[in-house]
Hints:
Helix content: 40-55%
CATH topology of the largest domain: Chloramphenicol Acetyltransferase
Amino acid sequence: MPRQERMSPIDTAWLRMDRPNNLMQILGVMLFEGELDFAKLRRTIEQRMLAYDRFHQVARKEATGYRWVDDPDFDLDQHLCRAVLPAPGGKAELERFVADLASTPLHPARPLWQMHLVDTTMGGQALVMRFHHCIADGIALVSVVMSMADESLPLPAAPADAAAEAAQAAAEHAAQLPFSAFWQPVTEAVQASWGLSGAVWNKYLELLGNPAQAMRYARAGGGLTAEAAKLVLMPNDSSTRFKGTPRNAKRVAWSDPLPLPEVKVVGKALECSVNDLLLSSVAGALRAYLDERGDATEGVELRALVPVNLRQPEHAGTLGNRFGMVTLELPVGQANPLARLYETRRRMLELRRSYQPVLTLGILGAAGLGPRLVQEELLDFLANKCSAVMTNVPGPQHPITLAGARLRQPFFWVPQSGNIGMGVSILSYNHEVQFGLITDKRLVPDPERIVGRFAEEFQKLMMLVLMEPWELLREPELIEAHYAAHWALR
């Protein structure tokens, strides 16, 4: 008898989030030096990746929800295949190939993943992968893919996320309160915003997974009430060319890598985290793109949904989705790169004390148990207030080989929910940081014009660290006049 397992409410929410113009697929590309041994690659997938049941199971809908069921007709050749790029087979052709996959649904009657081994003229082959988000989140998938390495190097632990730590700390306080004490603020906020029937909404909230777990969060009720109110009352972000209804055609691009040691040195000098620096560079690149198009940038705030890892260390090797989200407003309207960095740092510090990750994780779980229409209303409400999804995933900090070929550069692209038309992905590997960008073709037909600016924005900050006195770096306005003309020309 085929093995079966009930799909979690959160994974169900991701499965049902697919739309023709926004598919919930995580795409990745691994660029190698030279060629892989295809037979060895196939054996490695059989021995290591297929050890996880999810990769040979299908998502089957039943009266009580979805279940993971073994595919009796599983055929690895339907999931691992070769592909040929149009001439000349370079970066542009590979980007178009990946973009086409991003717009093409996975076969719903088969396990929801696929890999293509592609010959390129870029010095080696590329392994193009796509996984449906209902299988796992990005951190779990990176762990699975990297576990196939010939060296079997251990992955570094995901960096402790202060927002996750705050959420977990709040959750760990035991409370002798009823289950409704946790969900009451969520319920009231959602009902007020969406106008849902109390009876209908409460029914699905009460079904949420693990009441004991929810009770541990009850102590944080006051903070959750405030966060729920913030989400409900949160205005839309600025109207820019990045917002709009996406169609079903995507564009992807990736950047040349940044040296991670340099990023760390600059961050230490400016008393900012690596994440602060990278997010600020993204904001600067988006501003430069708007400037290049002649669009207004003064006062522009671009809000992004940012995943926050809530996976416990003991669950590091498991699949599924275990993250919440925070809403980060990028100060795109700030022209001064130093002031933009410090404002990004300030906003990130606020989010690290936020209960948003716990709240959004709970909303996703409840939505996955409710009717699809309720889920769509919930997620549309959040997505319509944002212009992008942004995520940062750690990879191994040592070079690895797969099927006999050395991995030169990996990158991935994150899916966008609702009508969000842009996704920014950051991945560290072998002491380098790489950016990936996916956009809707109608809204942003040339994402390479944005990713090409990421390094430039970081270099502005590095130049300030190298050229300016230490005390001046704490006063962005004092050096703005000196550099304003230079920044405008970049």
